[in-house]
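Support request, please re-run this one:
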Amino acid sequence: MSKSKWGILTSLSLLSIFCGLFFGAADLDVLTVFQCVLNNCPAKVDDVIFWQVRLPRVLVGFLVGAGLAVAGATLQNVYRNPLADPYLFGVVSGAGLGASIATLLFNGSLASYSSTFAFLAQIPFTYALPLAAFLGAFLAVTIVQILSRKLFGNRTEHLLLAGVAVSFMLSALSHFLLFMAEPFAANKVIFWLLGSLANAQMWFVWIMLPIVTISVVLLWLFGRHIDAMLLGDENAQTLGIKVDSLRLMVLVICAALTSCIVAYCGGIGFVGLMIPHIVRGWFGVTSRNLIIGCVLVGGSFLIWVDVVARVIVDNQEIPIGIITSAIGSLFFLFALQKNRGR
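Re-run finished. Output below.
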């Protein structure tokens, strides 16, 4: 039965990637898609649409959905909290702050306020954006860890509350920068913060693919250690697990994974919360199965959400974060109603 589930999920993922290539402003028929895959597009415009628009967008969507779902699933198991996800630890807010600063710098908005920032504008934007997002996410993780250890006795529930507080603080800083920035640049960042795959390009794939792959492989390799954490900290320690070191390592990996995604596609909420709950219902709580399931389901889910974002309103594209938030909120209301009697 389990093999049939994996077969269905793998087929669903491949089918989602294939079908996602057909949705957009221009029509591409099946024959044209196959010809383009064989690098023999019938027209120059088809070649541009397929290789520079459709394929990068679908692949980036799959990587984003897979990465966010895996990060959420791993944090939920490590902290034994079904509500844990990169948003709750301030990782997304920190990455958003770093990416906002980088974006505003390259528009000259911050550089105009102080010559201190001028030299940063010379760094290539391709490298500066993910680097700034990672530094922002790392800053958030560091603050949360310091608050948890020094003020709250390193208790898990207090760690989550510290993450919420840090998340709001960094979001407030981002909003202040946007308020002070030049209006056109601020509007550009605000649209990006809502989450979108509209600017996806093939070089996004080449940057995100190794980061997502390495992060997923590392988390999968430590799957049995993460499973031990589900038994409680004391039981995990008796099994030889270094609890604090493992939590810190997982948090840093999830920060790198999430910051890479946020840097290029903005804040896309609820994927890291909702998908692990769905996959856990099919494959249980074991981390290795959960991680692979989240890759397949999360990637497919975001491809179809992006399709909806492109086609639901004529001649307009809705930010993808709005749709995931709407679906996620309804999902949790349904889940709460379903589990009310338990």
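The first helix runs from residue 2 to 20. The mean pLDDT is 82.
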